[in-house]
From TrEMBL:
One of the GO BP terms on file: dehydroascorbic acid transport
Keywords: Membrane, Transmembrane, Transmembrane helix, Transport
Name this protein carries in UniProt: Major facilitator superfamily (MFS) profile domain-containing protein
GO cellular component: brush border; plasma membrane
SUPFAM superfamilies referenced in this protein's UniProt entry, alphabetically: MFS general substrate transporter
Sequence similarity: Belongs to the major facilitator superfamily. Sugar transporter (TC 2.A.1.1) family.
Family annotation (Pfam families): Sugar_tr (PF00083)
Cited CDD domains: MFS_GLUT_Class1
Compartment(s) where it occurs, according to its Swiss-Prot or TrEMBL record: Membrane
Residues of the Major facilitator superfamily (MFS) profile domain: 14-467
Organism of provenance: Oryzias javanicus (Javanese ricefish)
TM region positions: 7-27, 73-96, 108-128, 134-155, 167-185, 197-218, 283-306, 318-339, 346-368, 374-392, 413-432, 438-461
Amino acid sequence: MDEGKQLTGTLALAVFTAALGSLQFGYSLGVINAPQKIIENHYARALGVSLERSLTLENNTDLAEEPKHPSVVMYWSLSVAIFSIGGMVSSFLVGFIANLRGRVKGMLMVNVLAVIAGLLMGLCKMWLPHIMVIMGRAVMGFYCGLTSGLVPMYIGEIAPKAYRGALGALHQLAIVIGILLSQVIGLDFALGNDEMWPLLLGLSGAPAILQSFLLPLCPESPRYLYILLGKEQEAKKSLLRLKGPCDTTPDLEEMKREKEEADKEAKVSIRSLIFSSVYRQQLFVALMMHLSQQLSGINAIFYYSTSIFEQAGVGQPIYATIGVGVINTIFTMVSVVLVDRAGRRTLTLAGLGGMCICAVAMTVGLKYQFDLPWMSYVSMAAIFLFVSFFEIGPGPIPWFIVAEIFSQGPRPAAIALAGCCNWTSNFIIGLTFPYIQALMGCYVFILFAALLLCFTLFIYFRVPETKGKTFEEIAAIFQKKHQMAKESTELDQLKTSSDA
């Protein structure tokens, strides 16, 4: 069967439906930033600490000059940070939810959380807005922690081998489209104003409603049906729905071998995965890939972008920031096209290496932008290139490569651990970056350049290429490495004992 004929309408529907969860994740990430001053003012009013002149919002510059009350700062910080905390906690439950009722029903179940979160934020003016928004953001973070694991897992399991990378990268594409959408809708003349901001936040839950109608039309993962439940006929039906009329024997044979291997092993929980020497290589690679994404400095770039654009004389820095969002989306599309041709390893190396060079250019631009006005444009160019390199490889690939390098048994636990690593490092960067920036000033990007260099070297020496390989072949690569490491350890022990 020609793999080119395997992109069916049912497969497209299933991937699109799953990616709606990722779109919601991206929207929730970006939506809180645009109306910050307006929301802070509503918090101040609800807390009874607002000044008389801040009761009208006709001139936002007044709000920027008005000193913020410590209570407002605390509640605002909590509104932003609670999202990551929710994600950190729920990422541990990805494996449990995925195996409880299956991937499709799992995604359907967690949509209840997204709708509740959307209602809490959308109706926040009916009670205390600061409490309602924080509750909504916490529930939405909890939902996004689950969906950021369930979506790549489902797409990775239903995608044909030849298109697994491209379809896997759609998770990140949907995230960046969600961020861009939140930036555009969050503009003052749209929903980012005094009257409409609760609707802006409440729309976070809208994709979950559409997804809930579409999920019952999507086939369950054949790998889940066969390997976990042992339902061969149902797995075959699911394969035929996803691939169209074809010979399912090769796929079923591969799943049969994987099931036999999984049956030999004890059930892989998160705890046993951490302490297992068999999966240590894969787990180390998975965690380092996610760390490379979050510790690359991408969040710092977004943090710095508005001030750099202001320094460069851009009249409306918010539009330049939206420009960064557009670049984000375009280059994620480039990654979707290239990932199954160039390969995961190649694109990640190119992305991290390019980001490293851009981080050095950023440092030079920031250092000399006051002495040499044209250096501001160097900084601007470095921002756009940094984002481009990020989305070519380090942005999308960590999300789906974890599903590729682990077999069916440990996959849910591995995705849960990698997701928790991603959310935790994201939270730590968000919490500590302002302090690191205050300490290091413009040299903060040298720190990121050093980290990027380390990640580039790690991926060059330790991460194999998974393009075009079956799950079985990828597992064999790591088993071979594990066996070599084991033999090397045994040899060292023999040498030590003979020397003694």
